[in-house]
Design goal:
- 4 copies of one chain form a homotetramer.
- Chain A folds into 2 domains: about 130 residues, Voltage-gated potassium channels. Chain C (Four Helix Bundle (Hemerythrin (Met), subunit A)); about 90 residues, Helix Hairpins, CATH 1.10.287.
- The radius of gyration of chain A is 27 Å and the shape is flat.
- In chain A, helix 8 packs across helix 12.
- With about 280 residues, chain A is mainly α.
- The interface between A and C is large, with 60 and 67 residues.
Amino acid sequence: MTRIKPENPQSFRARLHTIIYEADTPAGKLFDVALLVIILISVLAVMLESVESVRRVYGYELQVVEWVITIFFTLEYIGRIIAVRKPWAYIFSFYGIIDFLATIPKYVGLLFPGSGVFLAVRAIRLLRIFRILKLVNFVGASNQLMIALRRSRVKIAVFLFSVIVLCIILGTIMYIIEGPSNGFTSIPTSVYWTIVTLTTVGFGDITPATPLGQFVSVVIMVLGYGIIAVPTGLVTAEFMKDKQVHLNTQACRNCGAAHHRDDAEFCYNCGARLKK
Amino acid sequence: MTRIKPENPQSFRARLHTIIYEADTPAGKLFDVALLVIILISVLAVMLESVESVRRVYGYELQVVEWVITIFFTLEYIGRIIAVRKPWAYIFSFYGIIDFLATIPKYVGLLFPGSGVFLAVRAIRLLRIFRILKLVNFVGASNQLMIALRRSRVKIAVFLFSVIVLCIILGTIMYIIEGPSNGFTSIPTSVYWTIVTLTTVGFGDITPATPLGQFVSVVIMVLGYGIIAVPTGLVTAEFMKDKQVHLNTQACRNCGAAHHRDDAEFCYNCGARLKK
Amino acid sequence: MTRIKPENPQSFRARLHTIIYEADTPAGKLFDVALLVIILISVLAVMLESVESVRRVYGYELQVVEWVITIFFTLEYIGRIIAVRKPWAYIFSFYGIIDFLATIPKYVGLLFPGSGVFLAVRAIRLLRIFRILKLVNFVGASNQLMIALRRSRVKIAVFLFSVIVLCIILGTIMYIIEGPSNGFTSIPTSVYWTIVTLTTVGFGDITPATPLGQFVSVVIMVLGYGIIAVPTGLVTAEFMKDKQVHLNTQACRNCGAAHHRDDAEFCYNCGARLKK
Amino acid sequence: MTRIKPENPQSFRARLHTIIYEADTPAGKLFDVALLVIILISVLAVMLESVESVRRVYGYELQVVEWVITIFFTLEYIGRIIAVRKPWAYIFSFYGIIDFLATIPKYVGLLFPGSGVFLAVRAIRLLRIFRILKLVNFVGASNQLMIALRRSRVKIAVFLFSVIVLCIILGTIMYIIEGPSNGFTSIPTSVYWTIVTLTTVGFGDITPATPLGQFVSVVIMVLGYGIIAVPTGLVTAEFMKDKQVHLNTQACRNCGAAHHRDDAEFCYNCGARLKK
């Protein structure tokens, strides 16, 4: 979306681009804030419409609001396609797909009634707030989170897979011990219960009744209470690594290498003396 | 509240200031401890009065206790205003507003019965304990906590906002899957349930009944169990940074080596004596 | 399983070994993936068979699937024994025992009906995925997890034992306070409830009814909420140590300074070239 | 309990001391293990006796077991007093008081029936296992845990106190919103519910019914989900500090100062060159 050759800044497309994509100009900022407010109203309207008592009284008004917003979203979507040089790049980008999915359900609802709930996908549009607030260091923080999570991705996958296998085995054991008469009606239900217990959620819709079942439950709980340390430890270690790497912020004047030790006097890459 | 010019230490205002604001003199210490005990009694009285069985038997006595405390708080509030040179600075300070809010409900209750429960705001006054215990390093610890939380504020906001958007989307999915017949009566209720599940609280007042709903629930639980690592990792990393920052910051004048121990007298690298 | 002397690569045993044990050749890779799919189908079949409504309709088909898989597992097990030079080493290895236990229940079920649920042990075979994915760094990550957990083993044991003793004592106190009339029917049940509460699972099948019982419950909850920090802190510290250990371990030959960056070529202290 | 002057090793008291207090001799080791087994049986007997169905069948046998153990404990307690030089030091030590409390309930039970449940205090005696296993590094690990917890004591206190004040205020708000008709019968009950929710236990015995109450609940849950990071971060930071401090294990040959930096060449305290 970075434009290589400057277009005539007074052309319609250029002005549209400024308003829709650039949050640094007053017009662009106004547009972004207005958009966020409209998305918020849209999400609230969908949520409220699902409440029986509200729908009975304000059903018609909510329908009107949703149609107005849908038309606005449609125009905005078309505007976005017009304003960029490579429309397909936008259409198949993450935000492009979300924008499309946020626009279409109301039209589909004309053909297939009941599909209106898919309007909830609009909630994802709220994530635009991060782009609007890019002036502050929100995006940086978000990226740092993402990087830390991505770096510990493999370990988290190994951990999660082991936990799932553990839950299948422990769930089956609970099914054998407790049986359908105590609410553990099948192995899938038992595995569901085991995950509910291991993650310390503990709904209490199914509870062990036999002493042996309670003993195994206790083992599951203590396990869950203990192994939560693993993802926490992984992510914390990642965050720490990040911290340690970014302490010395200067780059070598000779070779440009960065990330020196805090107490480095010479560049670790070329041996040149660093500025103190 | 630091006083620039010493007043006549025998004047009424000076003595009042000593008693109310200075916790280092015997009189001031006594006042602070007495105040804390009275606040505690006040909070207990409000709590006990809300218990039906207690109110029936001791209702009158509790009313008397509350009025006595209210009058004491009123006098203390007036005293605080008199004792300081810049009364408005006190009145609009955090503690000034809390003190006012802790005094007023009983009087308001004469006009609007039922507003007595707002006396609970007095609980905030218990935080005065930190000021009273300032002799010890309580305040320092509290500040350190505050600093760590403030520094990771932006990241926590990004994290929280993403989680809320996630909960809206997952809540809507659960509403579509389970529907009103299984207790997911509306999208707001579903979102509420999703947050209850994601935070691993798990009341169990609403539980999924369909296999697909249970599968999505499991995904929500595992997500909640996993992403708790993010705030924990953030705050831990902040605490750690704090630790590292407080190490000895001076560099050796002889060889320039840094990161000496806090109590180091000689450079660990060349043995030269460090500047104290 | 590393073979000292190369066998005739065209012999039956050598080819069998290549297929079953070596995931790097196309045939071996195909075998491993096929095996994983079959294990997955096997686990799903056992789980589905336990669901009443599914068993009624597809009971016969599931029986057929399970017998086919059992026969395949039998052949595979025999194949594994033939293909290795030291069969006993395989038979008594972790995977050998799991493979045996995953094969036998169906045969035992002919003699003792109802033992079919033990087929769930097959879920453990899913852990083979880690061996299949060894091309990537899954195994490394898994090992790192294991090492971190093993290193903090003693501390975790001390912690766990202390928590159990605490739960016995607090459980007995709750039994004394609440008594059988409020659901705390015996000390074992009370201890079970205490662990449910301390680990923040909170089923809600038993809840305190007396004010004193609720007060002790609150103490248990806050304890549980607080001491979760201990295993988390232990494991995180282990992970961190791990990170620190993997830093560049060499010292400068010129000035002896250590803790160089992993990719450092020059000493950060004196600028001398480091040995690669 | 370290003895200054060696007594005649063949005297009765010396031999008694060896058996009871010294876990390094075969006799002492045997005594310690036997004691642990008896304590375990004792705890199990008390737990089993509280189970209605077990008491009806084995009530008499359990009584006999408890009396035998009580007599053994009495003899052991007398033995311990005889074997040490300063009996009062033992009697008022932590273990001395626990030993006394573990012995007395059965005798008191003769006078006041029903006090038998206090036998549960014997569970604390199980902590003796740490002394018995002192050969291994259990005690060290336990001490390290204790030191880390003790060092972050003040911060944990500040944190806990703030959380309690928060819970009183939020509990009162929930009482105002939901009221007795929805199960929030009084402010103490509301505060209890708030702590149940904040610690993510979530029994589900009381749940918010109004939309506003559910909104405040969500705030409480997210708060609880987030601030668990604080104790975790504190303890982790303590554990880490511990790790960093203990890396260099050598002491200066000149002045005896320890805890040098890992890459220290000279003592930070006296400037003497350290042994590499």
